């Protein structure tokens, strides 16, 4: 006998809705607990790292090619290049290569002036056009790699202002350990006080980007290249064939291939770069949608390795990404839908009260763990950030859910209709 959302069995109504809701709650809480464990491990890693002095450069300082892919970056490119010229790395041991990728703004003119202003520094500009450029970051990086002279390659986005010691510390770490294929730093939000959105992003970056990196390194010796502020061995890049031009998330994709080659990636939190973040919802939505599509591509490209011996180095990351982009998203959609329909009186779930209690507890844990992570940064430990984190859980997390759903639908549509994914250019600000 059937009832609304239930089956009568042995005199007891088994509510199908309750079963699905229970599975959703279990999935959400499993992922939440995993993230809390990562935060705790990341904090332990932080305490260990701050007590460890940065390594010194070897006696034979390697030559480094610092590459900056740039498409219509006239607003920010001068400040970025000047900050790269300000590295305390020996000036005769690094070059700067800007790949001015099919830009139609004043980037070429501005970069030409920079070259004249610094005639004794190795600043090279590669101007591409629509025949060989304008095809995304991976393609631009491959073009730069072909022209680079360094044994070590360093990557910075066009909106970055790294601190002066960044390159020196990154290279010193890489040269000290032959098992490392790459070393990454962290990025901070340069415009964090511009809008409420950038305050959300600032906390997201501190807690869910670099603290999660530190936790994964502490527990699993795993890190993922963040796309900027990192160094990588040129020989390794050439061995894996450069960057995958189909990958929108080229950083995650090449991270997996580094591990598959038997190398490791190290996270060094002392290395900091400051970057611009989206200040409007439209720009944020498009940027994050690109991230989602890119990560789905990487997940599906490597899923066949999940339970193979060859895929062991990246197994945790594959499971983690699968859980975040598929299991968590589905569970949150189901949980939120049941909550809304229950409040509207359209459905009844025996677990709704239990679910709401767990939801409140999840908020408390989210706020507490997130606040702990940002206390490691100067100027972030204040009461206003507690309120921001609470608001972030209620609003920003739901916005991410919408982005994930939209990105997934967009990815499926592109695959069905055999469309090439387009690289979205993030808007910059003065």
Give a structural overview:
The protein has helices spanning 16-50, 77-85, 107-117, 137-147, 166-175, 196-220, 234-240, 250-260, 281-302, 315-343, 352-374, 383-416; strands at residues 2-3, 6-9, 12-15, 64-70, 94-101, 123-128, 152-155, 160-162, 180-189, 230-233, 264-275. With 430 residues, the protein is an alpha/beta fold. The chain has a domain at 58-286: Spore Coat Polysaccharide Biosynthesis Protein SpsA, Chain A (Alpha-Beta Complex). The strands form two sheets. An eight-stranded mixed β-sheet has the order 6-5-4-7-10-9-11-8, sandwiched between helices. Strands 1-2-3 form a three-stranded antiparallel β-sheet. Helix 3 links the parallel strand 5 and strand 6 (123-128). The protein starts with a strand and ends in a 14-residue tail after the last helix. One of its GO terms (molecular function) is glycosyltransferase activity. Keywords: Glycosyltransferase, Membrane, Transferase, Transmembrane, Transmembrane helix. Belongs to the glycosyltransferase 2 family.
Q: Topology of this protein?
A:
Layout: E1 2-3, E2 6-9, E3 12-15, H1 16-50, E4 64-70, H2 77-85, E5 94-101, H3 107-117, E6 123-128, H4 137-147, E7 152-155, E8 160-162, H5 166-175, E9 180-189, H6 196-220, E10 230-233, H7 234-240, H8 250-260, E11 264-275, H9 281-302, H10 315-343, H11 352-374, H12 383-416
Parallel strand pairs: 4-5, 4-7, 5-6, 9-11
Antiparallel strand pairs: 1-2, 2-3, 7-10, 8-11, 9-10
